[in-house]
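Students often ask what a holo structure prediction actually looks like on paper. The answer is less mysterious than it sounds. You provide the chain, you provide the ligand, and the output is a string of discrete structure tokens encoding the 3D arrangement of the protein together with flavin-adenine dinucleotide.
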Amino acid sequence: MTVQHKPFAITLDVGSSHLNKTGSWRSMRPVYVDRLPPCNKACPSGENIQGWLSLAEEKDYQGAWRLLTRDNPFPAVMGRVCYHPCENTCNRGQLDVPVGINSVERFIGEQGLTHNWQFHAGEDTGKKVMVIGAGPAGLAAAYHLRRLGHQVTIFDAAEKPGGMMRYGIPKYRLPREKLNAEIYRIEQMGVTLVLNHAIDNIERSQQEGNFDAVVVAIGAQKSTHIDFSGQSSIPILDALSVLRAIEMEKRNPLIGRVVVYGGGNSAMDVARTAIRMGAQDVTVISRQEEAHMSAHPFEIKEALEEGAQLLCLRAITEINGQVITLERLKTSEEHHSGHSHGVATGELETISADVVVLAIGQVLNDDCLSATPKIVVKNHTIEVNNMMQTGQDGIFAIGDAVPSQRSVTTALGHGKKVARAIHAWLNGKTYQPAPQNEVVTLDKMEPWYYSDAPRTVQPHLESMRRKNGFAEVLGDLDQDHATYEARRCMSCGNCFECDNCYGICPDNAITKLGSGKGFEFKYDYCKGCGMCEAECPCGAIAMVTEDI
Amino acid sequence: MLQQISGSIAVANAVALCRPEVIPCYPITPQTHIVEHLSSLVKSGQLQDCTYENVESEFASMSFCIGASAAGARTYTATASQGLLYMMEAVYNASGLGLPIVMTLGNRAIGAPINIWNDHSDAMSVRDAGWIQLFVESNQQALDVHIQAFKLAEALSLPVMVNMDGFILTHAITRVDMPDQEQVDRFLPPFIPRQKLDTESPLSIGAMVGPDAFTEVRYLAHHKQKEALTIIEQQAEEFANIFGRDSGGLVKSYFAQESDIVFVAMGSVVGTMQDLINDLRSEGYSVGILSLRSFRPFPANAICNALKNAQQVIVFEKSFAVGMGGILASEIHMATQRYADIQGVQISSVIGGLGGRTITKQSLRKLVDKAKQGDLDAEVFMDLEANTVVRELKRQQDEQSSGPVAENILRDMGVVSASKTH
Amino acid sequence: MTQKNTAEQTVKFYQTGTFTVGNRLLDEEFRTVQATEERSNSIDSGHRACQGCGQALGARYALDTAMRVTNNKIIAANATGCLEVFTTPYPETAWSIPWVHSLFGNVASVASGIAATLKAKGDSETRVIAQGGDGGTTDIGFACLSGLFDRNDDVLYICYDNGGYMNTGVQRSSATPGGARTATTMPVGEHPGSSFNTGKFLPAIAMAHEIPYVATASVHDLHDLERKVEKAMSFRGARYIQINVPCPLGWGSLPAHTIKLARMGVESGLVPLFEAEYGELTQSTKIRYQIPVEDYLKAQRRFAHVLKPANVAQLETIRALAEKNIKRYALL
Ligand SMILES: Cc1cc2nc3c(=O)[nH]c(=O)nc-3n(C[C@H](O)[C@H](O)[C@H](O)COP(=O)(O)OP(=O)(O)OC[C@H]3O[C@@H](n4cnc5c(N)ncnc54)[C@H](O)[C@@H]3O)c2cc1C
Ligand SMILES: Cc1ncc(C[n+]2csc(CCOP(=O)(O)OP(=O)(O)O)c2C)c(N)n1
Ligand code: SF4
Ligand code: SF4
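The corresponding structure tokens follow.
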């Protein structure tokens, strides 16, 4: 090192520019924000999807599992049966294909089961809550209440817990050992499960058991029925009883030529179950054209692959002996709703069948509510306020029993929400959900930074193999693929420490605080150019006007 | 060691003894032989630890020196005339940055018309560039002054230009006493830069300076040149002690203090003048010479001191400011004006030797004679071919309907008789 | 530093963004220099560049990389121009490395001189970088640069190409793209738009000198840029990198759009990114999502007139240039 004798003014010492506080040039200032990823907003259980995917990509599976199960205690189940509305909104869908959120969720769920990770109950509050129904809604409510420290007892009329997860959804989509394991884990938290115990008078049971609050989670268990004209000589069954019979390993009613009437998911479940039970042939009759059937396209596709036949735009008009008369319908678009419904054409045709299964919907069985008149039932559902409380103080209702999307994930979301509402109510308060952050749309992001990454497709069982038995259709992702899939997430709206702002600032006006700690603006030097905001890949920076 | 060699080779050898570390070069007559010789010294390994580079222009050459010097190398180059002008921007820059570069200027006229021969127009064109500008009278002095130039440059952290008349000195084969390495090493210690580009101690060199400090920066540069006045004298003394020769210094007086008529001149012409005054003095003339060895800094005190007894000063110079006149003459004027006791001296400005025109003893003697008679004009273009000029001016006048009368012009030039203007 | 394994990156890093500055999932040694807390900040806060200056960024990117590669043994020389002016107005310098500014047109020679000193002193560790704007490089400094190439001096020359003399108020340089409005090529008169066509493309001229390494880079693609600087530092001799650095002032663009514009320039084909060794093209960076040149032009006021119907001929020449680049440098 030389001793430098610097000439005046011409030669300058390093570091001297720090005296020049360029922050005074600024009219806008950047701030770090958390925006709501669209998947999170779309998830009826309100999962912090981006959050747990982020842990999953780091291979911190337990962390991911813990974060996920803060909202949803059934990852292994949901990773199989959820209709994943989250994926439809995934911003990545606008670039290539949405992140396979559901498949990673399943992987995480599997990790939880493999490692036997357990839930923990909250500190005891001394309060007791009765839950009626051990379907997903009731189980989720129990889980969340337990986490909050309340004592919970669930009563269910059925032999086994799970509601429609067990008696509706067939095993080839949801292996029972997974369901059992995830339910058992909730029981392990100290939830009391009373089975084969139908409740017929809610208030009485509440008083007898000294419960401070009640959750009614009885689902929609009554099948809708149609009486056809004609003299039928074949059994006309409903989807629920058929599926339940098979679940309970009762006599198989699905023999010979099976006709399933309905265009929804339960119709597909029945059809695919019938194929597995060895039916001679299976025909699904739908009033809608295929594109408008309420069943998910992949369900239809798989049913067809497995050999089911589909007759669309037809209605059963009468059944005589084994002959079913169908009337052809034509589509008409209803202006206001855009929904299509079939219009009769008068053209008739016939087919023969050995059994007809109606899969045209389920409604609330309100028998047990009659003793509690303050609980109002309207349009076959229980009326609740936005805290899920019925007309009867302290009695709440959730799941399929109330107006809802009728899906497992919705039921789970209800379970979480009602637990918080009850928790507040028990403390004499009203539950105030945290205000939601602004949703981050793709235009607030800079997706150039992510490379193309086609979605990993979960290994499918060969259709031939799946016809013969109830083996699970969708396989698991292996760890590499799960990691890969998790890494396709763009972390919309939430800083993932990509260092872009830190690297991109032409004025070095950002401090990197170190792994996990994020960044900080040096407002002394930030000139407010907005480059960090423009180039934040995930939209986690906003420019706000400087008040001068 | 005595050697019979050309001025260029002498200088090249002297530079080599100074252990330069970086030498960029670009050819231009009449300095070319210096860098050619250095090239073979480096290539043959006689001069070691030195990077010699053929660059693509004089501008590049000086810029190369700037980089090299800023990085802490003892740096040398040479040029002349057009080359100096081509590097001009960098010439100013080198001094502005305070870089101790040594450059030989093989003095040569500037075109157009292009002319490869000697005069001092090139040196004068950079008189305000902030460099130290030294002039040498002989090849011995040329090699001696180069050795001093490095020491001076490094002591001041300023670039030094050694002016050496093209052809007259560069190409003249004379006997010189070439010092040995040990002597030079004793005189010139290794280069310790004032500031340098150093990864261990980073600095920003070459800032932009605005009105708030520019005046001060310039004043400090001026001040540094003034300091040089002392240092040049000290180093000349030191040099004499080691090498046993008087070489360098600010001015050199040959009977200047004791003569009525004194020539003031720079460079090799001093040698011719010496011959002349030896003759004249033996004839009884009171005539001397003041040789200006340092043109920048301008040694006003030393000059006045030497001229204080003179009656008539003949400032002889090999260049002039067109439209104004003798540059050195006006500077000498300025200097004498500052000395109340020598204000009465008569100063004539003589311009001669332009573009290589031979300066004869005879012509110089005429000047002395005229001066002695009190008849020397204030401004004289020595040996101007009046006939040629008159003929040309006439022709021009015929072609033009308007314009000044040729005779008037010639009168201005002192070619035709005119009233004296002292 | 090890060469980054790009294959590994494309397979493994999505949420973290394959092209982002950092990546928390990468081993430290594979991260960009800019992602590190230890980066040298060769140019530091307090400089006076305009908001969103691409050059301020490009210079820090390049210099910090070179600093890392050489263990902080870099000396830089700078031509006159924005970069010099905004970093070193007395009494404040923003440089933290040894740095010298001499003149507008001589930076290549100054750098050669520094390299000559290092050579004379037997210092092979310290490396020299010369930097200048496109004006200082393609015009006034061209002779010195060509000399540097010709001698194969051990200098990395970096040209920050913002397509004009910005420091003096946006005049045309020989690297100004055809059609662009500048203060000396105003879109007025019979043929509005610049009559100059493609601009002088110095990388190709550098290649013609057959120097060890030539590359073009852009501030929007840091990984590519750092890799190229690192590569350049692995060679001895003359090397040239030209970095595409948008200038909000000169281009008439939003400060926030600097990187975006750099990206669009590349993705339209107008700014080809490639590498060449000893005069031969060795690699080109593929366009990831090709965009029409109009999209790029639209975002800059300097091209506003080009998009008017009367100027379709000018637009065609710009399109043609993009197509030619795409073909010549195999950008797709
Ligand atoms: C065939 C079929 C397939 C489906 N597939 C899917 C799917 O793939 N994905 C999806 O998201 N959703 C699916 N659904 C919908 C989903 O199963 C339901 O929306 C969800 O189970 C509703 O949950 P719940 O807890 O509200 O009601 P349920 O699951 O219906 O549970 C209600 C529980 O209450 C008990 N109960 C009722 N009355 C009483 C009483 N009086 N006393 C005690 N206990 C009582 C019942 O025994 C039952 O266990 C499917 C539905 C069906 C029918
Ligand atoms: C010899 C000389 N001519 C002209 C200038 C004026 N000048 C200073 S910077 C500059 C423009 C610099 O342009 P460029 O090199 O493209 O860099 P930029 O400012 O665009 O980054 C000019 C013309 C000068 N300083 N020196
Ligand atoms: S990039 Fe830097 S200067 Fe620009 S707004 Fe962000 S922090 Fe401020
Ligand atoms: S004029 Fe352009 S290049 Fe110069 S500082 Fe401003 S943005 Fe940067």
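Chain B touches chain C through 45 residues (CB under 8 Å).
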